[in-house]
Each structure stands twice: as structure tokens, then as C-alpha cells.
Amino acid sequence: MLTRRFSLALALAGSLAFAATPKDTLVVAKNIEDIVGLDPAEAFEFSSAEIVNNVYQNLVQYDPANPNHLLPGLATAWTIAPDGKSIEFQLNPKAVFASGNPVRPEDVIFSFSRVVKLNKAPAFILTQLGWTNDNIGQMVQKTGPNRIKVAWPGDFGAAFAMNLLAARPGSIVDEKTVLAHQANNDLGNAWLNQNSAGSGPFKLKLYKPKEVLVLEANPTSPKGAPLLKSVLVKNVSEPATQRLLIENGDADIARDLESDQIDALKANKDVTVKTYPQATVHFLSLNQKSSKLQSPAVWEAMRYLIDYEGISSKLFKGQMKVHQGFLPDGFPGALNESPYTFNPEKAKGILTKAGIKNLEINLDLINTPRFMDMAQAMQANMAKAGVKLNLLPGTGSQVITRYRARQHEAMLLYWGPDFFDPHANAQAFAYNVDNSDGNYQSTTTWRNSWLVPELSAQTTAALKEKDAKKRASMYIDIQRKVQRNSPIIVTFQELSQVALRSNVKGYVNGLTTDLVFYNQVSK
Length: 523
What we know:
The protein is an alpha+beta fold. It has helices at residues 4-13, 46-55, 105-118, 123-127, 136-139, 158-165, 175-180, 189-192, 239-248, 259-265, 296-303, 308-315, 344-353, 369-383, 396-404, 422-430, 444-447, 453-464, 468-484, and strands spanning 25-30, 60-63, 66-72, 75-80, 86-91, 140-144, 147-151, 202-208, 212-217, 230-235, 253-254, 271-286, 320-322, 360-366, 388-394, 410-415, 488-501, 508-509, 516-517. The strands form 4 sheets. Strands 1, 8, 9, 10, 11, 12, 13, 14, 15, 16 and 17 form an 11-stranded mixed β-sheet that branches. α16 (422-430) runs parallel beside α19 (468-484). The protein is globular, with a radius of gyration of 24 Å.
């Protein structure tokens, strides 16, 4: 039987017109239709990321104020082995899961092993450590009552390993609770997509796909009890509807507003709009399977045919900033130089010198206002240099399917890092040693059929480098090379504009959705 609070939650979910939000409940208006799974071994979407982050804990956690710094999570201390190939963690002896079960080294072993065994979308983050079903038992071992040793066979430093352990699939789950709900040897996967078994500040109380998600406070969390009793995330796909909810006080936070809605809210003294830099970068890419796009002259000219300032300041009005390096601002080794500006005459001269005439390019893009507006601006700008850009809009699934099959000519898309380490994006934008069609890779290089042996070697060397400052400088060098001479043109970094009722305090929104926190929110 549902409690009164969650009966209310269901009532809120069923209607967009409801009374002012309850004092002990945070109501968030957000599009959550992207959620596929809430099991931390499967969760791989933006919306599921922040839910996992609020329900589970890792051995170590990213600091949302400075993600380059790792904070203790379920581990209170750790020691890196002299050879740099393993780390021993000391677990908090008082830590318990929401079930009341103590957090044990066995739970850590189980959590990492099930990620590898289930092999869902985010599993690659941990298997980069060289973990397999055959060796995971040797790589993660109990060394004492509250001690756990994590080792890896790969040739890279402990800093990289720590960043992976702090990522989403590094969440520690309650083995006893999960196995009690196992079905058909799924290691509790189906159950964890509707329930939770973590030690974070919240528990998953209710999830109705594409409708509503409710988090309930976990007062026994080692991280401390939340200030509010619950968080209700109401699926609201229309930005205009989100604006009405936040204006009327029917929502405390609105997360997906477009620039027009943000402008309309500026006169409302009861609403505050805050801007948070995000790690998502946008890019235009040219598929090297198309012979007409293989000339470096085309790559260079295209860099001068984008009105970076006009698109960011006039079209998106504070929701994009010019950024031309593949590592987002805020990442170690980020390149914040943006040497290219809109110059159609220079672009025309580059193409003429190379003997390129009547260039016509088909551009695939997702048919949402953000991408359509950006593409139409680029289309008009490129026409000034005699380049014809044909727009081929499609649904997200249609566009991504074509992109993964390398069937596009040009692509307008974005990229978000899968974990907080520069290798996440360096591998995506500067690594490809096997360009064969049968060697599918989830990278911009492979998807655009750009084989880069030299850059790949440099990317591998940067991954192996153990000195943090030297490693960062190596990534800056790699970015400059991609920025100056590649068929992938990084254009913007996203800025998230969030509307909050003026009485909402303590909301945290870091560089990624894994760094959204609700536990310190009060109102």
C-alpha cells in the first residue's frame, strides 16, 4: 500500500495542474524519456546517470566542484602499490546499504564482477582496466575485514584507474539484496531497473517509464541523510510546459528549457535561472568514405564557414559557448584556444587554391529545434563561399543508425564523455588503428572513416603517462593537431540553463549528469 506521500506523487504524475509543491518534496520537471535502465551496470543515458548518482556510492567519488579531484566514497582511504598496478582500499566500517546490510568487500567484488558478466553498454568503462570474466576474480580481492585490493593488467597509471572506478558502473550494490531478486540468472538486472540496492542518499521508490520517478530519502546513507524527504521527477517533454510549471510554482526546478523560455522567465522574480557548464561538445564531421571530402583543404575551409559567435550568442543565447578543442573546458588538458572565426572569403580562397569547385555536401542531423537551427545557420553561412549544404534531418535513432553504419557524408552531432578522464574524449576524437567496416568502434574517428595511426600512438602514450602535468600537456598537443588538420570540427560546448524557484537552495549541477546532486537541496 502506498504511503500518503507517494499517493500524492502518483497524483502529481497524472496531471500537469496541481497545487504548490509539498514542503518536504522537490518536484523536478524534466524529460526522462531517454531512460533505458536504472541498474548501474546498464544505465547509460543522461537521465539515468543522475538517478544512479543519487542512489549509489562508489569507492571514490568525483568532486562536483572540481571533478579533477577525487573524494572518499565508501572507501575512507587508499594506498597505491609501488609498481602502480593496484590500489588497496579501506572501506568505511560503519557503512550500510539502504537495506541495513553492511557494506562488505564481498559487495565490491560482486558489483564489479556483475558489470563484467552482464556486459551491458557501460561495461567497457571497467573492462578498459583489462578485466574479463576469466581474470576478474584475481583482479579484485578481499585483503581484510574491510579491505579490498583492485588490480589491473593494463599499462596505465593509477590515476586513470581511479577515474574509471569513480564512474557510473563503479557503483557498489548490495549483493544480498540483489541476489534475492535474481531471475533467470540475470544477477538482479530486471529488478534493479525498477528498484535500488545502494547506499546513496536516496532510494528508488517509484519508477513509471516516461511518466514519473520518485526518490525517497535514505537516512542511513554514509553520505548523510538528504534535507528533503523525497524527489519527484515528472516527465515533461515540452519546454513550454516546463516553463508554465515553474512559473506557476507547480515545479521547483525545470531542466530542459530553450533560450526563448529562459528569456521569458527573466522578469519573474520568483524564478532564478542558473547556468552550468557541461562537458558535452558539439561537432561537424566529414566522412572520409566520400572522396570529395578527403582533401585537407576542405577540412580547413569548413572551419572558416561556421559563424561560431553568431550561433552561440544570438541563436542559443547562453546555452552554447565557442569551444574548438575536443576536451571540454574543466577537464585536465583541455585546450581553450579557439583560433577559427567566420571568414567566407578566406574559405573561398582555400577552396579555389585547391581547385575545388561547386562543393555540395549532404548533412545528416537530428530533427530537433537545436540541431535544425544550428544547421540552417551553417547552411546560410556556407552558401556565402559557394558551398551547398543539403540538410537531411531525421529522428535520433535514424541519424545515429546511419552514423554507426558510416552511411553519411557529413554529420552534425554532439559528444559527451563516458567517464571523467581525458582519455574518454581523446580515444573518441584521435584514435583509430583499424578502419575496416567490420571493426565497429563508438568513436568519431572510426564513424567518419578517419584512420589516424600517428595520433593513435600519441593517444596511447598519453594514456600510459603517469605524470599528471606531462599527461595533460600531451593531450593539449593532440587536440591542437586535431583542431588544425582533421575532418572533425569541434564547434561548441554546452551550457545548461536551469530554472529554479527562488526558495530552492543547495542544488548541485556539475559538468556531467553524473554530477547532479539533490541531497543538499532545501526549500
